Automatic annotation (TrEMBL):
It comes from Bifidobacterium longum (strain NCC 2705). Pfam families: Zincin_1. This is Peptidase. Coiled coil: none annotated. It comes from the Bacteria.
Amino acid sequence: MLPPPCPMVGTMLQPPWNARIYRNRHGRGTRTPMFGTRLPRYRTRTGMFDDMVAAQVRRLGQAWPELIRPLQFAVEDVPPSDPTPWQTEPNMTSQCFPASHGIPARVVLYRMPLQTEAPTKLELQLAVRDELVARIAELYGRRPEEIDPDWGL
């Protein structure tokens, strides 16, 4: 004989903002979201940075599909604290890793140094674009201006 299902299980599986009414953390009053999930305020800085990187990768992928398709792109919060021994001058904003042993080439952007370096949203978009183009050019042994003529402007 199976025990009766726990009444809390069904309510725990759905997020609280999908429920009609839920209680605050002390259980006394009702609590609703302060703003909707589709409003711009709901987006975090991390999510907006990821969207910027994805938009730049899409833009570059449309211009250079044969160069961008075999690459992997990643975003990390901060660079590793111990640089590899062959890096004489480590780049703290991005890094590229060439393909080896069945692992595709990768470009990694570090979010927090880029956000610290670029105070406005426009400057951050330009910094993300320049870092991506510079790392892709480094991987393929080309000049960044060949990949994106607007690089560095």
